[in-house]
Amino acid sequence: MAMYLMRALSRRHVTFTRISVLHSRNISDTILPPFRLCNAQSATIPCIDFLCESRRGFAKGRKSKQDSGPTTVDVTLDIGPALKENAAAQMDAAVVALSRELSKIRTGRASAGMLDHIIVETGGVKMPLNRIALVSVLDSKTLSVNPYDPDTLKALQKAIVSSPLGLNPKEDGQRLVAPIPPLTKEHIQAMCKVVSKSSEDVKQSIRRARQKALDTIKKASSSIPKDSVKRLEKEVDELTKKFVKTADDICKSKEKEITQG
């Protein structure tokens, strides 16, 4: 009897163990401790080390050329064109402003742009003259002012007479004709001084643009090769000389107009 009881208990223990193993496998195959089924050989789950090995292999791997960061040559190519373009834009803006200011100076020769700065008040609104009238050159000593609206003719005449240009336009049908009087010696000297002052102002603006470009190069010099830094500085200097020469040519041409009439 005792022998039958021992066999029955042994079979129940084996059945319970097998059911436990099946349930535990559904949860996780990696957390089972080693176990023994009765007299069967021990079944131990091996340790999985492939994650550690793959991690070591990845750490030892070398960076490819595609993974490496940008080289100094790429940085130079990025900063160079943008730097020169920005500097050139600032210098060109200074030269354009110079041309606009010099066009306001009256010389002994008629110029269509010499009336552009005059402000005309018509209908309670103030507007630049070149927006309400077309100015043209009849000859080297005469200007023609043709209003887009004939009703603004009187307002145009009043504004031109009130300007410091010393002009006295006359009505000619639906337009104004403005003779350019000859300049006095004193007026010529005064206008030449204005041109000289304008020349110095534009050169200072060009030099400020140059200094901004050089400061930008200096800030980025840590990531740019020395030869590239020198090359960029040289290109900025050449750009500066180019615009300074342009400004000088404009001023000399204006002084020639003033002195020769």
Characterization of this structure:
This protein is of the alpha+beta class and 261 residues long. Among the domains are: 72-102 and 184-260, Topoisomerase I, Chain A, domain 4, CATH 1.10.132; 112-179, Gyrase A, domain 2, CATH 3.30.1360.40. It is built from 7 helices and 6 strands. The chain has helices at residues 2-27, 50-60, 72-102, 129-132, 153-162, 185-219, 226-260, and strands at residues 119-122, 125-128, 133-139, 142-147, 170-172, 175-179. The chain is elongated, with a radius of gyration of 45 Å. Residues 13-61 and 72-77 have low confidence and may be disordered.
Beta fraction of the residues?
5-15%
Secondary structure tally: strands: 6
CATH homologous superfamily assignment of the domain at 72-102 and 184-260: Ribosome-recycling factor
What CATH architecture label of the domain at 72-102 and 184-260 applies?
Answer: Orthogonal Bundle
What is the average of the pLDDT values? 77
Q: Give the oligomer, counting copies of the same chain as homo and different chains as hetero.
A: single chain
Largest sheet: 4 strands, antiparallel
Q: How many helical stretches?
A: 7
Spatially, the strands of the biggest sheet line up as 3-4-6-5
Secondary-structure element series? HHHEEHEEHEEHH
Subcellular location: Cytoplasm
Pfam families: RRF (PF01765)
Protein name: Ribosome-recycling factor, chloroplastic
Domain Ribosome recycling factor: 98-258
